[in-house]
Amino acid sequence: MRGVTLKDIARETGFHVSTVSRALDPRARSALTDEVVQKVSMAAERMGYRPNRLASGLRTKRTKTVGLVIPDITNPLFPPIVRGVESVLEPLGYVSIIVNTDSRRDRERSQVGVLLERGVDGIIHAAVEREDPFFEELRRQKVPVVTVNRALDAEGIPAVVSDDAEGIRAMVRLLTNAGHTRIAHIAGPQQLSTGVERHAAFREAVKEFGLKIPEYHIIRSDRLIESEGRRCTEALLSLVERPTAILAANDRLALGAIEAINQMGLSCPGDVSVTGFNDSEVLRLIPPGLTTVRVDKAGVGKRSAELLIRMIESPEEETDPRTVLPIEVVERGSVAPPPKD
Predict the structure, then answer these.
(1) What is the sign, positive or negative, of the torsion defined by CA atoms of 185, 130, 149, 317?
(2) Domain carrying residue 291
(3) Quick one: residue 45, left, alpha or beta (phi over 0 = left, psi -120 to 50 = alpha)?
């Protein structure tokens, strides 16, 4: 049985085929009246019409697909980003193909290769490291790419990120206002833009607030996961002059820090205060409730998708090299004044 065609809908509604085509195209229907669009859309739905993406792709040389590269699909940071992306793509007739890299460069290259083989019109990349020569190959192939949440050091690939510097500054301010002067920092991996920028922001903020932080109170994690937060915290709390507060580069490191504090017979925030970065609703349910920086996850996803669509459909337009979205401080129960010596 053959599928329903635009000609079938045209006969059913009495409109010309070109009018039916425009009515079913989210980008073209604005030229028609709401009555025409509604009549055509209802007829298409009633008749079971499904657009032939393959035929359309042959005409337009586009597949209406977008690749979405995620470093860790289990990380609660990324599902809201995906939702933000899809909230833009779906109304415009695009679909996303999501791939997970497990934060491995070899897997990232193979997965991006699969996306290119599928003929995606562009890529939104959330797993990028600061330096990756593979992106030069994507530019040579003229594949539109936007990075989200992270950025490349090299110019030429636009990024949509959160205000990392202001988020870290806000956490240092909050901790100093609570009376802390011995603040440690668990930095993120330095091959990631978030790790480097939050680390640099911490150094700037403690200087601004008049604190002298010894180098041994700054420790770098290898991955943004709980076990690394535990390892780093155990090292910090084994020092003779241990910190009274730990500012972690993300929430998973912070949760690992709290676990280590408890395992060492201490309490958070009674003995050591802890802050994170990113935020998710579940954090309020995990005692003592993590004080953190909330980033607009859906917002960065939405903005990255809007930017990529412009690059696909209007490649001659200039694009902003870096879009920075504001952050919000979320105070819960993991910060208190330092214990009295």
Answers:
(1) positive
(2) 164-295
(3) alpha
134 and 14 in one domain?
A: no
Same domain for 23 and 73? no
pLDDT over 60 at 145, yes or no = yes
Task: Tell me which H or E stretch contains 131.
Answer: none
Asked if residue 2 has pLDDT above 50, the reply is yes
Other CB atoms within 10 Å distance of the CB of residue 316? 4
Q: Is the pLDDT at 60 greater than 70, yes or no?
A: no
Q: What is the model's pTM?
A: 0.83
Residue 334: inside a domain = no
Please write down the long-range contacts of 211-214, taking CB distance under 8 Å and 24 or more positions apart. 211/172, 211/176, 211/181, 211/183, 213/182, 213/183, 213/184, 213/185, 214/241
For the beta carbon of residue 313, count every other beta carbon within 10 angstroms. 14
User: What is the token pair recorded at 169?
Assistant: 């500054």
Question: Both 38 and 109 in a single domain?
Answer: no
Number of domains in the chain: 3
CA distance 31 to 85: 26
- Cα 58 to Cα 24, 62, 89, 131: the distances in Å are 18, 7, 20, 35
Residues 4, 7: Cα–Cα separation, whole Å: 8
The answer, yes or no, to whether residue 64 has pLDDT greater than 80, is yes
What value does the mean pLDDT take over residues 246-259?
98
Residue 157 lies in a domain: yes
pLDDT band per the 50, 70, 90 thresholds, residue 54: low
pLDDT at 151: 95
